[in-house]
């Protein structure tokens, strides 16, 4: 069995990290919408995440090779998983669940996690709910916008009403 670990992304590695993140996210959008017109997420979204309080960009490493990444933000017991991805060439090897386990282990004091994912990402929804123990707590759409994004900026896919699912996970820390 392969070992998955996490390594902090160095400043000089940020451009390549961003490119890999965008490749993974854009590829998923193109699978759902073959005529998808842009690279996602845009640089400004990644830069905003990297500049958020408590932000940490992490390489997901398997057997010494980078296979994905994540950006975790937040301070204290509440964390936001802004982005997590497995490189396109490495998908389908059960690395996501091992990566999530490594992320939880890296933040042992985190008792509340949040994230959002687009409504059409059925594979992600399955992963977060059935593999990682998250629950869906909100559905952001044009009638119930995400308070963190300006109107029309999040979940805007061609020919669709769009929308994002918000996920949460509370971890009970007994015996601490």
Short description:
The chain has 176 residues and is an alpha+beta fold. The protein contains four helices and seven strands. The chain has one domain (4-170): Aminopeptidase (3-Layer(aba) Sandwich), CATH 3.40.630.30.
Q: What about the largest sheet?
A: 7 strands, mixed
Rounded to the nearest angstrom, the distance between the terminal CA atoms is 31 Å
Please give the count of helices: 4
Mean pLDDT: 89
Which band does the percent of strand residues land in?
Answer: 25-35%
Q: What is the correct CATH architecture?
A: 3-Layer(aba) Sandwich
CATH topology: Aminopeptidase
Secondary-structure element series: EHHEEEHEHEE
- Overall radius of gyration: 16 Å
How would you name the CATH homologous superfamily?
A: Gcn5-related N-acetyltransferase (GNAT)
Low-pLDDT runs of 5+ residues are: none
Output the strand order for the largest sheet.
1-2-3-4-5-7-6
Question: What does this entry look like structurally?
Answer:
With 176 residues, this protein is of the alpha+beta class. The protein has a single domain (4-170), classed as Gcn5-related N-acetyltransferase (GNAT) (Aminopeptidase, 3-Layer(aba) Sandwich), CATH 3.40.630. Helices cover 28% and strands 28% of the residues. The protein contains 4 helices and 7 strands. A 7-stranded mixed sheet has the order 1-2-3-4-5-7-6, with helices on both faces. The longest helix has 19 residues, at 14-32. It is globular, with a radius of gyration of 16 Å. The two termini are 31 Å apart. The model has no long low-confidence stretch (mean pLDDT 89).
């Amino acid at each position: 069995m392969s070992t998955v670990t996490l390594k902090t992304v160095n400043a000089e590695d940020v451009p390549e990290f961003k490119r890999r993140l965008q490749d993974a996210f854009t590829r998923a959008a193109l699978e759902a919408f073959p005529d998808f017109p842009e690279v996602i997420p845009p640089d400004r979204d990644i830069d905003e995440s990297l500049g958020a309080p408590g932000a940490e960009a992490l390489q997901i490493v398997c057997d010494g090779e980078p296979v994905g990444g994540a950006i975790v933000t937040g301070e204290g017991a509440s964390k936001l998983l802004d982005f997590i991805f497995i490189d396109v060439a490495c998908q389908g090897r059960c690395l996501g669940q091992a990566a999530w386990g490594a992320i939880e282990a890296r933040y042992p004091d985190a008792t509340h996690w949040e994230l959002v994912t687009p409504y059409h990402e059925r594979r992600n929804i399955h992963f977060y709910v059935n593999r990682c123990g998250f629950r869906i707590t909100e559905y952001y759409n044009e009638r119930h916008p995400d308070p963190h994004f300006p109107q029309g900026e999040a979940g805007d896919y061609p020919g669709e009403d769009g929308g994002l699912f918000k996920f949460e996970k509370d971890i009970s820390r007994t015996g601490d």
